[in-house]
């Protein structure tokens, strides 16, 4: 969480902390996040502009679609895994996120690195999801629609199960009994006789 929050938190006045939302236990933090998550939106990063250089913290200025492609919002982040087309959980202006201090932090439009940021990308801890690392933006599965609230639990990728059936001839061949040399020889002789008989019948029919 600290990596994502750090840039914005340093620019947020202490009055942005939400009164009465201090969290005293792990179970309470999950309950609080589950209340706040309905305010978040699944967003797609449409473009990314790198900012910062030597001596300054690298920031990414992102244009994000959170449900209205004609009105993208700007999110400034330092999360290393954010790139164009990333599908992420966004805490927009007016929503509340879980800060490292265990308190609720109200998101406001804030200048970060000289750019106005209108939200924050959430990591797994901020969503109360299992797994994931602090400061790494949580990736959202394509099955969750853009503009909707992120799921309460990390969704598993949905992959279509494709059953590849073998041709009937191949299936039969797998279970066919292997012929002995004598049986193969006998079968070849029978085929030879059958071809000879067919050839003679054809010849007889042509002479009539």
Structural write-up:
Helix content is 26%, strand content 21%. It has helices spanning 2-9, 26-36, 168-175, 181-207; strands at 41-51, 59-65, 73-77, 87-92, 96-98, 104-106, 110-112, 115-117, 119-121. Mean pLDDT is 78; it is low at 6-15, 18-26 and 160-166. A five-stranded antiparallel sheet has the order 3-2-1-4-9. Strands 5-6 form a two-stranded antiparallel sheet. It has a two-stranded antiparallel sheet with strand order 7-8. It contains four helices and nine strands, in the order ααβββββββββαα. It has 208 residues and is α+β, with helices and mostly antiparallel strands.
Which descriptors apply to this entry?
5-stranded antiparallel beta sheet; two-stranded antiparallel sheet; alpha+beta; 208 residues; elongated
Mind sketching the topology for me?
Blueprint: H1 2-9, H2 26-36, E1 41-51, E2 59-65, E3 73-77, E4 87-92, E5 96-98, E6 104-106, E7 110-112, E8 115-117, E9 119-121, H3 168-175, H4 181-207
Antiparallel strand pairs: 1-2, 1-4, 2-3, 4-9, 5-6, 7-8
């Amino acid at each position: 969480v600290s990596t994502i929050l750090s840039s914005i938190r340093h620019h947020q006045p202490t009055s942005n902390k939400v009164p009465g939302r201090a969290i005293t236990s792990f179970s309470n933090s999950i309950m609080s996040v589950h209340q706040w998550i309905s305010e978040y939106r699944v967003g797609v990063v449409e473009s990314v502009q790198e900012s910062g250089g030597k001596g300054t913290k690298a920031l990414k200025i992102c244009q994000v679609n959170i449900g209205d492609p004609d009105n993208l919002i700007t999110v400034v982040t330092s999360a290393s895994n954010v790139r164009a087309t990333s599908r992420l959980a966004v805490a927009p202006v007016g929503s509340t996120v879980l800060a490292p201090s265990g308190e609720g932090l109200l998101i406001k439009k804030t200048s970060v690195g000289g750019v106005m940021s209108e939200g924050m990308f959430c990591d797994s801890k901020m969503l109360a999801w299992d797994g994931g690392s602090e400061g790494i933006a949580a990736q959202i599965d394509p099955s969750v629609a853009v503009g909707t609230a992120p799921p309460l639990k990390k969704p598993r990728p949905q992959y279509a199960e494709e059953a590849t059936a073998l041709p009937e001839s191949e299936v039969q061949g797998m279970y066919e009994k292997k012929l002995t040399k004598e049986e193969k020889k006998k079968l070849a002789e029978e085929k030879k006789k059958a071809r000879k008989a067919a050839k003679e019948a054809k010849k007889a029919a042509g002479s009539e």
